[in-house]
Amino acid sequence: MKNQGDVSRRAVLAGIGSTALLTGLSGRAQAAGNVFRIGAPNTITGAAGVFGTGVQNTIIEMAKRLNAAGGAGGHTFEVFAEDTQTLPEPALLAARKLIEVNEVKALLGVYSSPEALAIIPASNAADVVLMHTGAAPKLAADNTEGLGFQFYPSSQSIGFVLNQIVTKEGYERPVTLTLTNDASIGNSTSFHKYWAEQTGSEPEDIRYQPNQPNYRSELQQALLANPDVIILNGYEPDATIIMKQLYELGNTARVIAPEFAVTTRLIEALGPELVEDTIVYRFVPNSDSAAYTLFDEVYQAAMDAPGSANTYAAIAYDEMNLVALALELDPAISTGAELADAIHKVCGPDGEPCNSFAEGKELIAGGATVLNYLGASGPCDFDDQGRTPGNFGVSEVKSGEYVFAYGIVFED
Amino acid sequence: MIHYVITLLSIGGIYLLLAQALNLQFGFAGLPNFGIVGFFAIGSYASALLTANGNFPVYGAMLIAGLLAALMSFGLARIVLRLRTDYLAIVTLSFSEIVRILVIGEEQITNGPRGVSGIPGIPLLWSPGVNAVVLIIAVNVLVALATHLLVRSPFGRSIRAMRDDEAAFASISKSAVSYKLRVFGLGGFVMGVAGALYAHYFGYISPDQFLPLTTFYVWIAVILGGAGRLSGALIGTIVLTLFLEGSRFLRDVLPFISEVEMASVRIGAIGFALMVLASRRPQGIMGDFTSK
Amino acid sequence: MFYANLAMSGLVQGLLLATLALSVSLCFSVAKFTNAATGDFMTVGAYVVVAIQAVTGGSLMLGVLGSCIVTALISLLAYWLLFRHLAHVSPIMSLVASVGLALFLRSVLSLFAGHEQYAIDYPIARAINFHGFLIVPIDLWVALASVALLALVFAVLYLTPIGLQVRALADNRDLARAAGIRSRGVMIVLWSLIGIVSAVGGTIIGIKTVVIPDIGWNLLLPGFAAAILGGLGNPLGAVIAAILLGICQELSTPMVGFVYKTIFSFAVLIAVLIWKPEGLFGRVEQVR
C-alpha cells in the first residue's frame, strides 16, 4: 500500500520523538518566593463541559485578584489548570500530575462523585486538600484524613428542602422529573421519602435521559398526573429544553428547580414569560448576600456572563477564599493537614462572620483567631467529615429576575 | 513523580489490553468491532457486582468477568457476523450503547446511574504492597505472548488468510464463520478482563465511564500504531498516552494557552492526526499487515 | 388521544433523525462509507445559525441560508482534503477518518465558541389543542422544513441530469465510469447536498434543543440506526425508517419506559438485521 502521500515510519517516529523531548524539557515550573500552588482539575470537556470553563476561569481570576491585593499570609497563588473530561481516569491522572509534578497543596473545583472518588485516595496519601461537589455518601467515608471538603449539600437535605417548599406553598400533587444521574436521582428519591412520610402517598417520578432532542412524551406522562407542581431535578441544557416544551404543551403547574438548572442564561434564551413564577432554590441562605455580589463581579470579569449562570463557579470562588483566609490566619502552613485545620477555623459556623477575603483579613489583623466565612454558594460550614449542612435560599422568577422569598435550614 | 508514572502505566496498561484485543479482532482477523466499551463494561460490572457485597474472590470474579464478556461477544458475533463490515461496525457500536443503557435502567442489579462503590482492590499473591500495575503489565505480557503464539499457529494463518481474502478462504474452507466466532470470543474475553481490572483498580464504576468515546480511543491507538502487528497496539497506545498526557506538560511551558483552549486543541490534534494517518498512512506508524 | 399525542411526539423525533439519516445515507450511496462526522456537520450548521443571528439581530431565515452555504463549503472541503484520498482504501478506514474529522470539527467549534450553551431564536408558542390532540406551531415548521428539504434532495436526485449521474454512480461505479460519467462533478453535487441537509438538520435540532458542541454527536447513533434500517445508501429508505423508528419509539414508552426508549432504535436495528441482513429497504450489494 504505497501511495504518493505515504509518510515513512521513520519520519513519524522522529516526529513523535521530538514532541516527547519537547514535553520532557518542560519539566516542572520553578517559581520563586513564597508561592502557594493550587490545582484546578475541572470539567472543561465531557458531560459537565458547560460548567467547567466557568469554574476554572473563576479560580484563575481569583488567584490573579488575590495576588494583586498582596496575596494571603505572605503567599502568592499559582494555579495549575487541567481538564478532567468529566471522567474518573483522566481526573485521577490530572490530579496525580498536579500533585507530583506541580506540587500543588490543594485541588479545587473537582466536580462529580466519580471524579472525586477516583482522586480522594491519591490526595489523601499525598496530604493534599480536595474540594469537590460530589454527592456520593462514600466520599464522606473515604475522607479518612479530614482533607476532603464536600461543597454540595447532601441529597437528603435537598429532598428536605423540596418537601418544605411544596408543603409551604400548599401543593398537593407534586410530580418529579428526574435526570438519570447520581445527584438528581438522589434528590428525587430523598424528596419522595419525605413526602411519603408526611402524606403516605408516593408521587409520580419520571426519569429522563440526557441529550434527547425531544421530551414531549416524558412531559405528557408527567402532565397526565395532573400535577399542581413539577419538581425538576436536572441541569441547564436539559432544563432549557424541558421548560420550553412544558410551556408549549400548555403546562400551568408551577415548576421548582435548582438555580443551576433554571439559570439566567436559560431565562434569557426562553424569555421571561416562559419562566414566570418558577421557584428556584440555591445553596445560599440569602441571595442578596455581600459575598454573592462580589462573586458575581469576579465571574463577570472571568466569563463575561452573570454569576447566576454557574453555581459551581460560585463554589469555586468560595473555595479560593477559604484557602486564602486559612493562609492569612496561619502563614506558616506547609502541609495539607495544616491547611485543612485552618480551613475549619475560618469556615464557621462559630467565629466572627465575614463575607470576603478582605473582611476576613481585617478581622485577623484585629486579632480574630476563628472566623465564619459566609460564601457566595452557601454558608460554607463543614462538619468533621467535610460535609456542608443544607442552608438554602428560595426565590421566585418575576419578569425574568430572581426575587428572594425565604430561606430554609435543613434539620435532620 | 513515581505515583504519577505508576498511575499512567496502570491506566495505559488497561487501554493497551483493549487495543490488543481489538488488534486481534480487527488487525489479525479483519473484524471491525466498535462495541469495545460494551464488553469492557460487562467485565467491569460482572467483577464489581460479584465482589462488592460479598466475599467472592477477586481473581475468580475477574475470570468470570472475562468469560461472561467472551460469551456475550460470541453471542453477538453469531447474530451479526453475516452482515457486511459497515453494518457490523454500527451494530457493535449500538450494542455497547444497549449495554450502557441497560446498566442505567436495571437499578436493582447495577445500582443504575449511582454506580457501584466499595469494589475491593486487586490482592496480589506475593506482596500486598506492590501496586496493581504489576498485574496489569503481567496480563498484558500474557496476552501479547498468547497472541504471538496464536497468529503463528495454523489457526492464526487461517484467520489472516480469511482477513486478506474472504472469498478465496471460503472456497477452500467452510469454517470462516467458526474462526470469526472464536476470534470475537477471544477478544471479548480480554476486554472483559480489562474491564474487571479497571473496576478493581478504581474501586468505583458508573455508567458514565462507558461511553463510546472509549471505543474510539482504542481504535485511534490501533490505527496509529498499525493494525495487525503486535507492536502496533503497543506503539499506538504509548503514542496516544504520551500525547494526551504530554500536552499537559506542554502547557506548563506555554502559559499563554489556557487549559480551556488546550482541551480543544488536544482533541482537535487527535482528530487531525487520525485524518492524516487514515488518508496518508493507513498502515499506521509501525506498518500494518500489508507492509510486512 | 394519549397515543395520538405520543405518535405526534414520535413524528417530531423521527423528523429530527430523518435529516441525519438522510445525510448518512447520501454519503454512503456514492462515497461508500459510513460518515461519523455527519452529526458534527449538523453541529456546525447550528452554530453558524447562532452566529448569523447574533450578527444580523435574529433573522432565522438569513441564518439558515447562510448556514447552508457555510456548511456546504465545509462539507466540500472535507471531501476535497480528506475523503477524496480515502476512495481506494477499506471503508473502515474512511469511517475512522470521519471520526477524526468529527473530533476536529467539534474542537474547532469549542475553541472559538466555548462549551457554554447557545440558543437559536424563534417565537415560542403554546400548542394548538384539537380536542386534546396537541400540535405545537414550531413542530409544524419543523415538518415543513423537513419536507421541503426532502423535496429538494429528491428533486436533485431524480429530476436533474446530474442527479441521474449520481444515481448511476451509486448503482454501479464501473459501469457509470465506462459510460463516461465523471465522478468529480457528481461528488461536488453530493457533498454540497450533504452540507445543505446538515445545515437544515442542525438548525431544526438546535431549535428543538440547545446549541452545545455535542448536539450532533449525541444523535449520531440513532441516525446511523435509521440509515441502516432503511438500507444503507437508500436515502428514501433512511427517511422512512427514521420516521417509523421515531413513532415506534415514542409509542413504546408506556411499555418500556423513558430510559429504555433511547435504545429502542438499536434493539429494532439488531432484530431487523437478524431477520433481513440487508435492512428494511436495502437490496444486497445493490444500493441506490
Automatic annotation (TrEMBL), chain A:
Q: Which GO terms describe its biological process?
A: amino acid transport
Similarity remark:
Belongs to the leucine-binding protein family.
User: Organism classification, top ranks?
Assistant: Bacteria, Pseudomonadati, Pseudomonadota, Alphaproteobacteria, Rhodobacterales
Write down the superkingdom of origin: Bacteria
User: InterPro entries, alphabetically?
Assistant: BCAA_transport, Leu-bd, Peripla_BP_I, TAT_signal
Report the source organism: Alloyangia pacifica
| Keywords, ordered alphabetically | Amino-acid transport, Signal, Transport
The entry's protein name is Amino acid/amide ABC transporter substrate-binding protein, HAAT family
Recorded hits in Gene3D superfamilies, A to Z, give: 3.40.50.2300
Pfam (any one): Peripla_BP_6
The family database entries (SUPFAM superfamilies) matched by this protein are listed as: Periplasmic binding protein-like I (SSF53822)
Residue span, Leucine-binding protein domain: 37-344
Q: Which PROSITE patterns match?
A: TAT
Keyword set includes Cytoplasm: no
Automatic annotation (TrEMBL), chain B:
Q: Which UniProt keywords apply?
A: Cell membrane, Membrane, Transmembrane, Transmembrane helix
Locations listed in the record = Cell membrane
Specify where it is mainly localized.
membrane
Q: Which GO terms describe its cellular component?
A: plasma membrane
InterPro entries attached to this UniProt entry = ABC_transp_permease (IPR001851), LivM-like (IPR043428)
GO terms for MF: branched-chain amino acid transmembrane transporter activity
Membrane topology, as annotated, equals: Multi-pass membrane protein
Q: Where are the transmembrane segments?
A: 6-24, 31-52, 58-80, 87-105, 125-151, 183-204, 216-244
Matches recorded under Pfam families: BPD_transp_2
Q: What is this protein called?
A: Branched-chain amino acid transport system permease protein
Species for this entry: Alloyangia pacifica
From TrEMBL, chain C:
Q: Which Gene Ontology MF annotations are present?
A: L-isoleucine transmembrane transporter activity; L-leucine transmembrane transporter activity; L-phenylalanine transmembrane transporter activity; L-valine transmembrane transporter activity
Q: How does it sit in the membrane?
A: Multi-pass membrane protein
Q: Which residues cross the membrane?
A: 60-83, 95-113, 140-164, 185-207, 219-246, 258-275
Q: What is its main location?
A: membrane
Is the keyword DNA damage assigned to this protein? no
> Which keywords does this Swiss-Prot/TrEMBL entry list?
Amino-acid transport, Cell inner membrane, Cell membrane, Membrane, Transmembrane, Transmembrane helix, Transport
Gene Ontology cellular-component annotations: plasma membrane
**Pfam families annotated for this entry?**
BPD_transp_2
Record GO biological process: D-alanine transmembrane transport; L-alanine transport; L-isoleucine import across plasma membrane
Q: Which domain of life is it from?
A: Bacteria
Q: Report the subcellular localization.
A: Cell membrane
Q: Which family does it belong to?
A: Belongs to the binding-protein-dependent transport system permease family. LivHM subfamily.
Task: List the protein's name.
Answer: Branched-chain amino acid transport system permease protein
